Amino acid sequence: MGDVPRGVGGFPSFVTELPITRGALEFAAELHAGQRRDADRAPFILHPLEVAQLLRGRDYPDHVVAAGVLHDVLEDTDADYGDLEQRFGVRVASLVCAVTEPPGGGDYAARKARLRLALGRADAEALAVS
Length: 130
Hints:
By secondary structure, this protein is an all-alpha fold. The protein has helices at about 20-30, 45-55, 60-70, 75, 80-100, 110-120, 125-130.
């Protein structure tokens, strides 16, 4: 994200034209505060920002970019589907839900296998977020 021009709130400038994504970034930054990526210990919020940049760079609409920003909040924070639906609407909440590991526990391989099965039934927007 190093060369991305910064706009309001320290977020990339492309976010200024995406009101749903801007709200999603504010929400995700709050929820992921203090979390670090396992691989490099960088602030976790960098990952959702990278996803947003990729989706926007491929001209996906605001609600898809917002879902990309939020794609880890159901797994990695205390947020639930209702929180997303209330703040961002059914379309965004449904996309996030579609790319979230289905319930059931198990080891990494089992969880990802269930997610792959679920993604096999997902629409094109959900697959883009994934």
